[in-house]
Fold this protein.
Amino acid sequence: MPVVGRRWVALGVLGAAVAVIAPTAASAGPADNPDARAAASSGDRTQDVRRAIEGGKARNVIMFLGDGMGDSEITIARNYQRGAAGRLEMDSLPLTGEYTTYAVTKGDPSKPDYVTDSAASGTGWSTGSKSYNGAIAVDAYGNPLPTVLELAKRNGYRTGDVTTAEIQDATPAVLASHVVSRDCKGPVETTKSCPSNAKENGGAGSISEQEIQVHPDVLLGGGAAYFNQTVTAGQYKGKTVLDQAKAAGYQVATDAAGLNATRGDKPVLGLFAPNNMDLQWVGPQAVNGGTAPAACQANPALPASQPKLADMTRKAIDLLDRNARRSDKGFFLQVEGASIDKQDHAANPCGQIGETVGFDDAIAVGLAFARTHGDTLVIVTADHGHTSQIIPNGAKSPGLTATLITHDGVPMTVNYATAPAGGSQEHTGTEVRIAGYGPQAANVVGITDQTDLFRTFSRALGLR
């Protein structure tokens, strides 16, 4: 059964009361509350839409990206956690569309690569230019491209980059680094795989080094292992990347208590795991022939000291907003739910669903802020589709399946069939959902491309 429930709270939005979801430990959901279910599915959102289509300039932008969170992944999580007639927080954004996600061929941008990875996808929305799979904010020929975070900083905005993966992973990396391969996370890997980017060859260094050099005000996630590597050249040669970060003025937090204690007078670097952060939920893996119906459980190995994505989002918004109050410029913040993708690759439905629900909890935090700060644009989207599908119970799939008992108390069979047992399930080339709230959100409506999102951000913030 669902691990996490929630309560319904009425909030005023632009003078109108609407129902929104706020996570709590446990309580009745839409399937148990017909009035709440009706409000979620048929509430009058005219005022939200009118506000969104007015356009105008935003003071703040919060982008939420669910890695690998295609429409199927959203539906699986909704069915399990809220029920078929329920709604996730991400479903409450008033304007929605779909965008295309294809990459291009390395060295020949005229030829599409129909199935993108997170690096090429992220390069598209962060720079406005298509690139090849594996590219981190470089064009199809390997040349650096300015990113929306870098432009926001140059234009006087505060900036933040938050993830549940390593902060050197593709999505956070495309905002604050430029390397020819996503594998070049630390100095060691860069020397081997990206010699043109290596410090000893006159390059800007690894993803870790460049992220510190770009200097976002808030940088939170995993990836501590790469900060323990030694810098190979330049001012910090012989010292670790973490030494470089401290010299650049970063407060360093390694657990939830440390993050809560950080102040707004210095930039914040949160490193909460050696590599990716831990999963929220565990349960049966999909296998050939399927599994008996089961429920997901909270991950017993999840450290109590590790902050959740909603906690990191709340703190990031607080720090960025506090530091921007004395300025006419606000902030740009990216928040990634990274392991939706990673657990889709692993054919692990409970892991995937738990990460989607945790991501949705973070969206609730961002929308609560936006609803009291009408000059805030919120975007919720994904970088690419993935393999998981809902199929009929009892279907004889050639792939891997697992059956879960949902919020509705009925079985749901989740299928993975883009790789054989033991292999990594593959991305798909489908278009994915994009949804918006606030100034410029009307630009997500219809069918757009990932590169269009860069221009939406630029218009919203007035970036030059």
In short: The chain has 15 helices and 20 strands. Confidence is low (pLDDT under 50) at residues 1-41.
